[in-house]
Amino acid sequence: GVGLVTATPEQNDVEYLSPVDIGGQTLNLDFDSGSSDLWVFSSQLSTAATTGHTVYDPNKSQSFALIQGATFSISYGDGSGAAGNVGTDTVNLGGATVTKQAVELATAVSQSFVEDTNNNGLLGLAFSKLNTVKPAQQKTFFDNVMPSLAEPVFTADLKKAAVGSYEFGRVDAAKFTGAMTFVPVNTTQGFWQFTSEKFAVGTGAVQTSVAGSQAIADTGTTLILAEPAVARAYYAQVPNAVNDAQAGGFVFPCNSNLPDLMLDIGGTMAKVSGSDINFAQVDAQNCFGGMQATPANLQIYGDIFFKSNFVAFNGGNSSLGFAPH
Ligand SMILES: N#Cc1c(N)n[nH]c1N1CCCC1
């Protein structure tokens, strides 16, 4: 269908990359529902920064136009970031097209982006109020393309170690099982944010971590970052699991039989498969948990959540749909 692109995982499913056509040039971008800038590796970057990357060259696009005086500068929760100038061009993903989309051209990127040679930029899918372009804030691709879509939605179908998809304009019932539950989203902070205060470990009792606790649906984050109470209760059920400061969080024997994790999304429980919580090997015996405690007071449900749940982002009524897949 129109607006369908692949989502290909990097090693260890650290992030997912999707092909985007910008002014006739195709770049693989990280679709990020936790931020709102579309920025790309550009020909203005140093050779050191672009080695191994595909870059966008505005001089080779007939449809590029500079936005005089516009700049961007973005920093992410993991300390990475990018900055540069801004223009518009035709952006086409899987047939869904915006003719004058703000495209932010990096003139500086942090080392983690330089080293991640599969990643040629980000396509932000959170709300446009988080966009960093100055002096005039710009709209996300989703905001711009929405009026032309059959339905004002995009979906994320991310898989463990397999190619999935993002789709704009429809919710494909063939991509999930059972009923899809929709919950209202609180857009105040510019995220796809909802209340998530309850959890259960395996078939255990549902309990409240922190009354009123909030979470965001964030395809740009690798793991699930949950309330410390959730992480402590979950790993208490995993023999020989420890919170290892050197590893940066909870680790456990790789051959552990991990329980499922139930998390509420706006009051309805969603399941995260225990097998998806075995994220990556850290030493001969131990593996790193795909769910960790967050120090912040906002939980981040990243790619680990999406591997068990097909998610629909409805920009028409600011709601989030989820279903097992
Ligand atoms: N940290 C972080 C983060 C987030 N919460 N959403 N997207 C993020 N990144 C996109 C590229 C690097 C980090």
What this model shows, in words?
The chain is mainly beta. It has helices at 47-50, 111-115, 141-145, 228-235, 303-308, and strands at 4-9, 16-22, 25-32, 38-41, 65-75, 81-93, 96-109, 121-124, 153-159, 162-168, 181-184, 193-195, 198-201, 207-208, 214-217, 224-226, 242-244, 249-253, 261-265, 268-272, 278-281, 286-289, 291-293, 299-301, 309-314, 319-324. The protein has a 6-stranded mixed β-barrel with strand order 2-3-8-4-7-6. Strand 9 and strand 10 (162-168) form a beta hairpin. The model has no long low-confidence stretch (mean pLDDT 97). 3-amino-5-(pyrrolidin-1-yl)-1H-pyrazole-4-carbonitrile (46X) binds at residues 30, 32, 34-35, 76-78, 80, 122, 218, 220-221, 300.
Task: Provide a brief overview of the structure.
The protein has five helices and 26 strands. It has helices at 47-50, 111-115, 141-145, 228-235, 303-308, and strands at 4-9, 16-22, 25-32, 38-41, 65-75, 81-93, 96-109, 121-124, 153-159, 162-168, 181-184, 193-195, 198-201, 207-208, 214-217, 224-226, 242-244, 249-253, 261-265, 268-272, 278-281, 286-289, 291-293, 299-301, 309-314, 319-324. It has a six-stranded mixed beta barrel with strand order 2-3-8-4-7-6. Strands 12-15-24-16-23 form a five-stranded mixed beta sheet.
